[in-house]
Amino acid sequence: MSRLRFGIWALVHGSRAALQDPDEPYDASWERNKKLVLEAEALGYDSVLVAQHTINPHDESLNQLEAWTASAALAALTPRIEIISAIKPFLYHPVVLAKMAMQIEEISRGRFAINLVNAWNRPELEKAGIPFLEHDERYAYGREWIAVVEPLLRGERVTFKGRYFDLHDYQLRPADGFRTRPQIYVGGESEPAKDLVAAHGDVWFINGQPLADVERLIQDVAARPRQAAPLRFGLSAFVVARETDEEAHAVHEHLSELAKKDAPIRAVQKANTDPKVVMMQTMAKTPRVGSNGGTAAGLVGSYATVAERILAFHHAGIELFMLQFQPFEAEMHRFATKIMPRVKEMQQGPKMKAAG
Ligand SMILES: Cc1cc2nc3c(=O)[nH]c(=O)nc-3n(C[C@H](O)[C@H](O)[C@H](O)COP(=O)(O)O)c2cc1C
């Protein structure tokens, strides 16, 4: 199985659990994100996910970090961490996006990845005059889009005629000088999302949810038709860890109370969301804080509890844990110092007693 890796969600739209938290004032600025990612890298995190939203999906009057320009700058500033930038196909023609991805791949010296997501926030597209297609039609568009982008990333000369795109003899240079091409992650939980990732993805991002559900999803998608190397899996999760389970649950309760203050914002967000989006249906099943499943993955508890659950998910096939915290910087530090070494130790098994 692939090496277990930990990543963080960049704070592209501020706090992840509750927007009105005195311990984490709203801040989605470049300066904060730059510092955060440099700190994450120094602490040993392997990956950063930069979500893509043109307008803030919670409240459009709030600041929103731009994913692709920020990712390019992060690529230049960091030496080691993987940079994953989300992309909604409707916003970029495939040749433009493939070209930008190849440039960030060069700047980062082979550490770049895209996360293909097929949109849920209606006003982001509609207010720009871009049609918000019906759910499965969005996936048909996304599938054709990635079928064009993928060979361009490999440096191939592409001729393609489909329903949406018509390319003739198109090739991008320079080709990837570090590996075959940047990695392709996919986020989305519906049937067409599962087919898309099986056919075109390298890694499937699963929304945070209980272990049994994650096991079922992995088995389902791993069994779908696929030409490439076996699919790998990532999990989004919000972590609340303390010395004891009781302390962690109290903090979770505190964050849940704070999150209630965002009810009016969430109501607008719900009204803006395509009701067919499976991600939102999954998240409605389990009370939680955080986005993309958040604490529904159960990474709430003592350091020992959280480390054990991480290993259980890893044994089920999860390679990359894409993590959220609040307040982010302090809790990201706690995770790196209290949980990462514990997980490593548990993976190595019980220590041999010194002979003598
Ligand atoms: C790890 C992860 C990251 C995501 N990042 C974004 C993002 O950056 N922007 C966005 O609009 N949607 C994002 N999404 C949401 C997907 O767009 C969403 O799952 C999809 O549009 C809904 O499709 P579904 O019905 O297949 O779940 C993300 C989903 C996952 C699982």
List the helices and strands and how they pair.
Layout: E1 5-9, H1 30-43, E2 47-50, H2 67-77, E3 82-87, H3 94-108, E4 112-117, H4 122-126, H5 135-153, E5 158-161, E6 166-170, E7 183-187, H6 191-200, E8 203-206, H7 211-222, E9 232-238, E10 240-242, H8 245-260, H9 263-272, H10 278-285, E11 300-302, H11 303-316, E12 318-324, H12 328-348
Parallel strand pairs: 1-2, 1-12, 2-3, 3-4, 4-7, 7-8, 8-9, 9-12, 10-11
Antiparallel strand pairs: 5-6
Flavin mononucleotide binds next to strand 4 and helix 10.
Salient structural properties:
binds flavin mononucleotide, 17% strand, 12 strands, 356 residues, globular, 8-stranded parallel barrel, single chain, two-stranded antiparallel ribbon, alpha/beta
What is the H/E order? EHEHEHEHHEEEHEHEEHHHEHEH
- Helix fraction, binned, reads 40-55%
Structural class: alpha/beta
Strand order of the largest sheet: 1-2-3-4-7-8-9-12
Task: Specify the biggest β-sheet.
Answer: 8 strands, parallel, barrel
Distance between the termini: 36 Å
Poorly predicted regions are none
Radius of gyration: 20 Å
* Total helical segments: 12
Description:
The chain is α/β, with parallel strands linked by helices and 356 residues long. It has 12 helices and 12 strands. The protein has an 8-stranded parallel barrel, surrounded by 7 helices. It has a two-stranded antiparallel sheet with strand order 5-6. A two-stranded parallel ribbon has the order 10-11. Strand 3, helix 3 and strand 4 (112-117) form a beta-alpha-beta unit. Helix 1 (30-43) runs parallel beside helix 12 and helix 2 packs parallel to helix 3. The longest helix has 21 residues, at 328-348. The radius of gyration is 20 Å and the shape is globular. Bound molecules: flavin mononucleotide (FMN). Flavin mononucleotide binds next to strand 4 and helix 10. Flavin mononucleotide is lined by residues 51-53, 86, 88, 115, 117-121, 187-190, 193, 205, 207, 236, 277-279, 292, 322.
